[in-house]
Structure formats: C-alpha cells, structure tokens
User: Which sequence fits this backbone?
C-alpha cells in the first residue's frame, strides 16, 4: 500500500509575470516503509515537492494522498492533523535558537496535548535515538550544525509520524557527520518509518540505505526507480553505481 | 472526535506559554497595563458619576412631582376627601400623607451632619402635605394642570409642581448616561488599540516560534492561544488597576463632597461600585483585551 501518492501534480508559484512553475505533471507513489530520496539539481523542485506533502503549498492541478487521505484539498483546520503525522526536517532546521534541545523537541509533543511527564519521556527518547544527551542545558544556538540537525530529526521523530521528510539533511555537514545522520535515518527507517529526503549530496546515494529514488529536473519527474519512467535516465543511475540498484532492491529501471 | 483531556492539557501549555511570554517582556506588559488603566480610569470616573447622579436623583425625590401643602387648620375629613379624589385619577399611583413630624425626620436625614441646625425647631412649623406619586412618563402638561386644579381646594395652601426641574434633572441624567455610553465605546476602542499594538509586537517578536508551531502541527487555537491569554490578562489587569485607583480617588474626595455639599450628597448617598459592578468592570477589560488580541493575532498568525 502506498503511503504517499502524487497524481499529475502541477505547482506554480506566483501569478502573472512572476509565475514560476516548480512542478509539472508529477506522478509517483512511495510504498510504506520505503527509504525514498529525491534527487535533482538546484531549482528542480525538490523542496517544493516536500512542501506539498506538508500542505505548506497547494498544487494547482493533480491530487496528493498521504496514507489514503487527500491532502491537496485539505481544509485549513485539518492541516495540523496532517502535520502531526508527517515529521519534517527543514533545510534551515527551524529550531528555537534560545531553547535547549529538549525544549525544542518538547514543543512538537505539547502541541499534541500530551501530559508533561510523557512529553519529557518521549522527547528524551527521541533525543537518545539521535544520540544526543537529553539533559544538556545548552541552547541550540550553541550547538554544532550536526547537533542541530539531529535535534531537528529528533523533533520530527518524537511524534512517531508515519512519514519522515528531510530536506537536504546532510547539506551543511562534513562527510563524516553526513554518514552519521544517514545512519540515524536508516535506523529510523528500519524501525518502520517511511523516510523521504531531498538531496543533491552524492554521499546519500553511496550510503547504501536508499530503496527508492526519484529524479527531478526543472519541475519534471525524469526518473523513478520503482516505476521506470525514463529508462535512459535510469541507466544513468545505474552507471552512478547507485547502491540501491546494485543491491538487488526491486527496481524496474534496468532494461 | 475531540480528545478532551489532551485539549485541556494543550490549553495548559497555552496558558503557561502566555505567562512565560509576558515574563519575557515585563516592561511591555507594564506599559500596556498602565495605558489601559488610564483609559479605563476615565471610563470608570464617568460611570461612577453617573451611578451617583442616579442615587442623588432618587434621594431628591425626583419621582414626587406634585406636593400638595395643606393649611394647618384643615379638617382631617376634608384632607381625606381630597386624597381620595386624587387617588381616583388613573395617572396617580399613590398619595402619601406626610405629617409635620415625617417632614422633620426627612429634613434631618437630608441635612446629615448638619442636622443639629434643626435643634429647637418645632415640627409644627412645617406644614403637613400630600405627596402625589404619578406614573412614569406622565406629561408635564398634565402635571401642571393637575396642580392648578388642586390649588382650587380650600384646604390647600400651596402646590409644588416639581415638573420643570425634574425634567431638567432627568435630562441631565440622560446626558450623563449618554456620555458614559460614549465614553465606554471610545475607551473600549482605545484599550483595544493598545492591546492590539502590544500583541502585534509580541506576535512579530515570536514569529519564528509561530511558524515552528504551525509546522509541527499546532492548531490555530494552540498557536494563537498565548497571545489571546496575554491580551485578556492585560485588559483585566488594566481594568482592575483603574478601579483600584478610582477607589483611592473616590475615598479621598467623598468626605469633601459629603461635607461641602451636604444637601446634595447626604452622608451615605455617595457610593462606590458594588462587587458585582466591579466584576463587570474587570470582565469588560478582559473582553476588550480578548477582542484586541484576537484582531492582532488573527491577522498575523497564518498557515
Ligand atoms: N516561495 C517561492 N516563490 C517563488 N518561487 C519559488 C518559491 N520557492 C521556490 N520557488 C521556485 O520554484 C523552483 C523550485 O524550487 P525548489 O526550492 O523546490 O527547488 P529545489 O530543488 O529544492 O532546489 P535546491 O536544491 O536549491 O534546494 C525554483 O525555480 C524556485 O526559484
Ligand atoms: Mg531545496
């Protein structure tokens, strides 16, 4: 059963002359439990795609379903419930700089109205999952980029969402930290959470954790390792020594 | 389905966030409360004046427009006959017989502290009278015609038709009442504007937190809540402070008014707001705060 489904989605920013088409007729499905990755050059529409899943933007055309719920026409007051089911790690983290890691993670649980004790317990657990010390009194602004990234992941995880989205989770990190973060995400994925990340970092593809790859270029989906929409491009992927393709994961791309 | 325990706990987080936010900017809160209080003080003063004007009007006997003074030597049965005739008129609600003794007691009450002035005065010097109470809204034309008729009776020495000056007093009361109403709406708007601008600043200062809360699934109420609570607290505190100041002022001024204008304000006629009225005042402040902060948070807290 797909946990995420896009059908002929077109998304345009702005109006009139300022119009920018960020996605054009994009269709794909992500199976439950997948570790999907969105690749493509800058401006391809990766972040836009993730924003659509969070209902931060609305498509002009097409339909989007998350766990069989239509979200392209979600009513405004239902959006919070969607977001509680979709954990997101943003490119710029979106953390409260003056708060501690624990406080930052707790915010996402207070929103659910959980009892204080449970908020604390679950936030601590989420921080331990990303190998951070929950008791630290340091504010997030005094943490390294890698630590902040992990706080952001912990917050996204803490509500036990069905899907975890991450936009360039290794974007600001050195290769060693990047691999660490990927290992954290892989572990989360092994525990049953569907993970979808956007990246142009080759390390992600090399790490051997991906089960599904979607290629975007100038707003169009040019490859889908599970659907084989572009054999030519898929061959490129294989030549890239994509670990997924070499690792025997079912991919229809190899002609 | 709404999960009520979670909703309540979420409300708890909202309230504690509100107080934390207020503690983070105490000067802003102080200023907001103080300016709100100044506004409310104005309103409170007008309201208090109005309340007391009504009280004084009552004490003056504004509802006794016709007093019929009787000759000292008039026979009782003739007085009774006149009273009976008057009582038969549909517009007359009641006719009260006031003996010289009653009149003396009333005068003494009216003079309050100065009652000693009456020592040695015999009640007999005051005439006995009939007080004719009329229905509300009886026209002053009817009242003066009635007065004229009654003065034709032999037992009647004089008729005091209070119509003209009660009309004026009532007119004055109405004016003060309208002023109070006008002041209430003006002050309401001013306070709302004060709360609105402080909350707008708070929303602006915490805009990244607002965005984060929205992105992690905070409902509109959850995100807006702290600001609304802050507005309500500012409004209510402003009103409470205003009422406290007003009470202090009232307490200082009361003895002077009661001594200096003892005929107008007999001791005890001047009063402060009742506990219920005070509660309404504070609730009014809270409501104004709510409306002001809702307007401020509604506009800036978006998806
Ligand atoms: N808020 C916006 N308003 C107008 N245009 C936008 C907005 N956000 C993105 N775009 C445009 O939409 C297109 C896709 O942008 P998007 O951010 O999705 O790309 P991306 O693949 O995430 O790029 P990057 O790898 O640089 O993060 C770009 O042309 C971009 O300029
Ligand atoms: Mg991007």
Assistant:
């Amino acid at each position: 059963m797909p946990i995420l489904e896009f059908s002929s989605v077109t998304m345009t920013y702005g109006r009139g002359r300022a119009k920018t088409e960020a996605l054009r007729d994009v269709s794909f499905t992500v199976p439950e439990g997948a570790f999907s990755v969105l690749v493509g050059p800058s401006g391809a529409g990766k972040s836009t795609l993730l924003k659509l899943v969070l209902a931060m933007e609305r498509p002009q055309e097409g339909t989007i379903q998350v766990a069989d719920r239509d979200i392209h026409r979600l009513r405004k007051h239902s959006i919070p419930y969607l977001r509680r089911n979709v954990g997101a790690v943003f490119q710029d983290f979106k953390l409260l700089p003056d708060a501690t890691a624990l406080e930052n993670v707790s915010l996402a649980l207070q929103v659910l109205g959980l009892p204080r004790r449970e908020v604390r317990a679950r936030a601590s657990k989420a921080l331990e999952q990303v190998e951070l010390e929950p008791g630290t009194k340091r504010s997030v602004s005094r943490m390294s980029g890698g630590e902040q990234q992990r706080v952001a992941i912990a917050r996204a995880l803490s509500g036990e969402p069905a899907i975890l989205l991450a936009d360039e989770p290794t974007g600001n990190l050195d290769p060693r930290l990047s691999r660490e973060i990927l290992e954290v995400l892989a572990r989360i994925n092994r525990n049953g959470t569907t993970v979808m990340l956007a990246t142009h970092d080759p390390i992600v593809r090399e790490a051997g954790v991906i089960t599904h790859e979607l290629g975007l270029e100038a707003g169009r989906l040019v490859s889908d390792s599970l659907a084989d929409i572009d054999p030519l491009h898929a061959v490129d992927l294989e030549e890239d020594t994509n670990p997924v393709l070499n690792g025997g994961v079912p991919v229809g791309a190899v002609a | 389905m709404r999960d009520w325990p979670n909703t309540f706990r979420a409300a708890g987080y909202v309230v504690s966030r509100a107080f934390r936010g207020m503690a983070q900017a105490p000067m802003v809160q102080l200023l907001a409360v103080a300016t709100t209080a100044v506004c409310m003080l104005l309103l409170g003063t007008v309201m208090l004046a109005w309340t007391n004007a009504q009280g004084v009007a009552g004490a003056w006997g504004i509802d006794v427009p016709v007093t019929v003074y009787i000759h000292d030597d008039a026979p009782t049965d003739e007085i009774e006959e006149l009273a009976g005739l008057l009582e038969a008129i549909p517009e007359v609600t009641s006719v009260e017989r006031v003996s010289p003794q009653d009149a003396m007691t009333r005068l003494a009450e009216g003079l309050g502290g100065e009652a000693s002035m009456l020592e040695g005065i015999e009640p007999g010097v005051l005439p006995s009278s009939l007080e004719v109470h009329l229905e509300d809204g009886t026209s002053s034309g009817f009242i003066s015609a009635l007065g004229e008729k009654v003065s034709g009776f032999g037992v009647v020495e004089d008729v005091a038709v209070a119509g003209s000056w009660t009309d004026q007093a009532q007119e004055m009361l109405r004016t003060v009442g309208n002023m109070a109403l006008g002041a209430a709406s003006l002050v309401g708007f001013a306070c709302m504007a004060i709360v609105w601008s402080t909350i707008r600043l708070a929303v602006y200062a915490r805009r990244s937190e607002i965005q984060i809360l929205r992105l992690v699934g905070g409902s509109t109420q959850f995100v807006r809540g702290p600001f609304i609570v802050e507005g309500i607290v500012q409004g209510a505190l402003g009103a409470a402070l205003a009422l406290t100041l007003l009470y202090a002022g009232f307490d200082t001024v009361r003895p002077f008014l009661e001594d200096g204008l003892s005929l107008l304000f007999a001791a005890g006629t001047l009063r402060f707001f009742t506990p219920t009225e005070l509660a309404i005042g504070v609730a009014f402040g809270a409501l104004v705060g709510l409306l002001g902060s809702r307007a401020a948070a509604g506009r800036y807290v978006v998806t």
About this structure: The CA atoms of residues 31 and 98 of chain A lie 38 Å apart. Confidence is low (pLDDT under 50) at residues 230-255 of chain A. Chain A has nine helices and ten strands.
